[in-house]
Task: structure prediction
Amino acid sequence: MNHQPLPRPGFASRTALPTMPASQAEMLERLDALLPGMEERAARLDEEGGLPGEDVAVLGAAGMLAAPLPRALGGLGWGSEPGGAAPLMRALRRIGRASLPLGRLFEGHVNALRLVAAYGTPEQAEEAAADAWAGRLFGVWAAEVPERGLVLEEGMRRLRGGKIWCSGAGLVERALVPARAPDGVRMLLLPLPVGTGRADLSVWTASGMRASATGNVDFGGMEVGPGALIGPPETYFAQPGFSGGAWRFLAVHLGGIEAVVEALRRHLAATGRGGDPHQQARLGLALAEAETARLWVQEAARLAEGPEAGDPEAPDDAGGEAAARIVAYVDLARGAVERAGLAALELAQRSIGLGAFLRPAPVERIARDLATYLRQPGPDRALTSAAQHALARTDAVGDLWGR
Result:
């Protein structure tokens, strides 16, 4: 199959069709050139129901939406092949630094493509690759209200229910969703043509991440085609990918933390307050928090995407043990990055003072977005699960993670 970009209505007219650079470095250089525009639009789109459609089109035109694909499908193998974790971390971090809402959407796009490539048939992977080349945004939507959750019924041909808090609900054209079926939880990849009216963005009233196009999506009555099922039952929860993959949203968090600290540094330089030793101390502590987060995310990415990940189908004494170690470490990283983010926020707000809470100061918006995005599900479970892993081991604390 020729994995060159395929035109779709509206895409070719908005921007040039993408080409894939030969090197990871060139792709990251392309991204760097786009970041100022993303940062400017992030401020402009900070409103309920904000749709970063232009940013998605820009990413598509640069080849960024296809970069996570395996090289066999024309991508750069970001995160899924040897050497792909480091450039993916840098991309997620840089996009998050410019726009946390956009970083959230790109991370979901990466997650969906990885799942299709890992568990889909060759035909499904090729179709997803063609869609990514064509600039279609993918997303993974799992949150739901139990009594109104997504159910696959009528001989696994029709859906009932929906999903909540779907980031990119106004922009995602390919949604990967887990649904309850007679044989277990199944992954479905569903087409969502823009403008179908299934998304309700009015329910997203959070103070931050307002430009993430988040809303509820009703899939009730949607017919499921024969090629929609991705992988066998319970594939969505396969470890270490399910929990270990959290390192990717931590990389976006890291970008937000660095943006907060950068805003503090610029404020001190612009106001001439950088000579105050108390302000220097706060900036120093904030820099340390950002670096702490970076080191945690870097190591989490190395473990989750390296050979230590093993085979999720391997017996417990082989791949299973490696998976447990990876999940425990990434769970710890979740707590460490959250604490670093909250500490950096407090230091920046205390240092800047009231101005940190006044619009249109960039730090005010970034702080709202970061505080909202840091609220990931199950933080206590992640921490106690990692502790349980350590309690069950006899290795020295310094050797728990196989280094």
In short: The first helix runs from residue 11 to 14. The CA atoms of residues 288 and 394 lie 32 Å apart. The domain at 24-137 is CATH 1.10.540.10 (Butyryl-Coa Dehydrogenase, subunit A; domain 1).
